[in-house]
Amino acid sequence: MDRYQAAEEIEANLRAGAVGEYLGGDDALEVLGEIFRLHGMRAEPGEGLAEHLRRVDTAVGTYIASKFEKIVADNVEAVMEEAAEQRRHARSDYAQLTAERVTA
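RE: above sequence
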């Protein structure tokens, strides 16, 4: 598995809602708190509802996109290492099964 495949796997998992695999409890709560804070922004004086909602949406979207990218970047190496470990175990299991069949 290369970096691009690892990033694609992480992105797919995040889109499916599997955040806990990549983000610890305290970090997840911090992100959620920031999203709520951004969502609760007050309108600026004289700002219309549509402008306010657009500003809030942009702020929340920008924050989520930056966190998404950071989570992917922070976890690519770990996913690549896990995939390599799984391949090593699969080869070892195959060698063991082959050896058992030969001796049987």
